[in-house]
Write a structure and sequence with these properties.
Blueprint (H helix, E strand, L loop, with lengths): L6 H11 L4 H7 L4 H8 L9 H10 L14 H9 L14 H11 L4 H8 L3 H8 L7 H11 L3 H6 L4 H14 L6
């Protein structure tokens, strides 16, 4: 089961609670209104990219990391972080899926070729993703995460302290009218 199944609902909630029209949100995210509607419609399976998620989150005044999870309780978020495989030794505060992929792959003694095969991506594409020189879709990241035996959330949050994640989630909840500042 994917952890990121409520993105569309969260987007709509954040947008409407801030009084942002679809037209304005799409403009802020540098996308079309039609695409914005597609992203908010949870019944549609889109091949959204990381770049699109960043632009959407920026348009809604939240951090990309919490766009999909701010509706969860602090306890649920803590449990998701606790399920992560650990923190890379040179971790910095920030989201670096490419670096996290390299770290996890090496922790599991996998070559790029082995991981690429397990995730059904080309080795060249995996290399570009690891070096973060490619705009990658969420489904591809999900396949890589699954091949590494972690959730997409864990893949993206290995280098982010849980308190920072909770602070971002609280800020998003305030914007969505779910919590008082």
């Amino acid at each position: 089961m994917k952890h990121f199944i409520k993105r569309g609902r969260n987007m709509a909630l954040l947008r409407t609670s801030q009084g942002i029209s679809v037209e304005e949100a799409a403009f802020r995210a540098d996308t079309s209104e039609k695409w914005w509607h597609t992203l908010e419609d949870e019944r549609r399976n889109t091949t959204t990219t990381i770049d699109t998620i960043r632009r959407v989150a920026h348009a809604l005044n939240v951090e990309p990391l919490v766009l999909d999870i701010f509706h969860l309780s602090d306890e649920e978020i803590r449990a998701m972080v606790a399920a992560s495989p650990g923190t890379p030794p040179q971790a910095t505060s920030g989201v670096h899926p490419g670096s996290n992929i390299v770290w996890l792959r090496k922790q599991q003694h996998m070559t790029q070729k082995q991981l690429a095969k397990a995730a059904a991506v080309s080795q060249a594409r995996l290399r570009d993703i690891e070096h973060w020189s490619a705009n990658v879709t969420i489904p591809v990241l999900e396949r890589i995460a699954a091949a590494l035996g972690v959730s997409l959330f864990a893949l993206c949050t290995l280098t982010v302290p849980v308190e920072d994640i909770l602070d971002m989630a609280h800020a998003a909840r305030v914007l969505a009218g779910m919590e008082v500042a």
